[in-house]
């Protein structure tokens, strides 16, 4: 009897059989909610929707995407940190997840959540951000942009998904290296900021390549540089900041799935197995992310935990350099 129980537990933990041994029956027994802490249209949303569709095929249950924006991602992230740890509420997070609690401390507030309230499950994508300007703008290179910014300190605006968000931190790295002063305009998420850039009410934006690609191809936006160590597929003609003489300007906007920390280990592993299967075998997911210019860069287990820890430490140092934003 003991041997059979051990075997059942091992198989369940590996995601090879449903958690039928539990009194509540097989997991998942109902819809699984994926929270995006930003409005539709941003990088997290662009990743979450095809990922949720792929997970529906794996789980055999609906996986609705719920946009819960507010405070640059704090509201939605905190809601998952406080959610019931039953595996039915997950967060599709951005790299700002680890930055926002530190930003709250800098502003003298008690963080709405801390990273140790969430369990890292898997990374889906990891893309360098891209510096975008309207195609109608006068800047055709970073050199022209920097020269104009030095002539008119504080006159050129840039948007972000909120104070200390990934898009804000990326631009702060660039402006600090270039020695320029821009006007920061925070939005509720990357989607609204991108809309403002397209409408001409913003001058510049650091964006994930996924949401930007179609607009660049259509000639509505111009990409001046990227924050990667190498050029981005789909943006092969766009130089990196490192190429342009800014060796410290390197930044990646990644998407990853997190669960409340107390979620049972077998359920966490079921999520990892499902995400791994979706990313490795689901052609619909792969095509959707490739078309969006944000290819799969899957990582889970100890590798993702280490990546998340190291990336968060680096970004927290950048936020501490930014300091208090009035």
TrEMBL record:
Residues 1-23 form the signal peptide. The keyword DNA-binding does not apply. Keywords: Receptor, Signal. It holds the Pfam family TctC. It comes from the Bacteria. Belongs to the UPF0065 (bug) family. This is Tripartite-type tricarboxylate transporter receptor subunit TctC. It comes from Muricoccus pecuniae.
């Amino acid at each position: 009897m003991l041997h059979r129980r051990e075997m059942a537990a091992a198989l369940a933990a590996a995601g090879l059989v449903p958690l039928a041994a539990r009194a509540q029956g097989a997991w998942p027994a109902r819809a699984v909610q994926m929270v995006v802490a930003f409005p539709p249209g941003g990088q997290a949303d662009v990743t979450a929707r095809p990922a949720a569709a792929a997970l529906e095929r794996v789980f055999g249950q609906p996986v609705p995407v719920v946009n819960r924006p507010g405070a640059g991602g704090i509201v939605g992230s905190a809601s998952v940190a406080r959610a019931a740890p039953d595996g039915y509420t997950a967060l599709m997070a951005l790299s700002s997840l680890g930055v926002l609690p530190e930003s709250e401390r800098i502003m003298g507030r008690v963080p709405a959540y801390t990273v140790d309230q969430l369990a890292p499950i898997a990374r889906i994508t990891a893309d360098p951000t891209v510096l975008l300007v309207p195609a109608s703008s006068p800047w055709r290179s970073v050199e022209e942009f920097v020269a104009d910014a030095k002539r008119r300190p504080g006159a050129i605006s840039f948007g972000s998904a909120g104070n200390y968000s990934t898009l804000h931190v990326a631009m702060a790295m660039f402006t600090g290296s270039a020695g320029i002063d821009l006007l920061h305009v925070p939005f509720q998420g990357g989607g609204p900021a991108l809309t403002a850039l397209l409408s001409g009410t913003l001058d510049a934006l650091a964006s994930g390549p996924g949401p930007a690609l179609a607009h660049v191809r259509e000639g509505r936006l111009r990409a001046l540089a990227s924050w990667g160590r190498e050029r981005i597929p789909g943006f092969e003609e766009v130089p990196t900041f490192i190429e342009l003489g800014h060796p410290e300007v390197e930044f990646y906007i990644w998407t990853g799935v997190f669960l409340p920390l107390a979620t049972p280990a077998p359920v966490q592993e079921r999520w990892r197995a499902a995400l791994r299967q979706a990313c490795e075998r689901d052609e619909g997911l792969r095509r959707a992310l490739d078309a969006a210019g944000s290819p799969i860069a899957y990582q889970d287990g100890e590798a993702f935990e280490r990546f998340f820890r190291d990336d968060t430490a680096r970004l927290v140092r950048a936020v501490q350099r930014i300091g208090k934003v009035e």
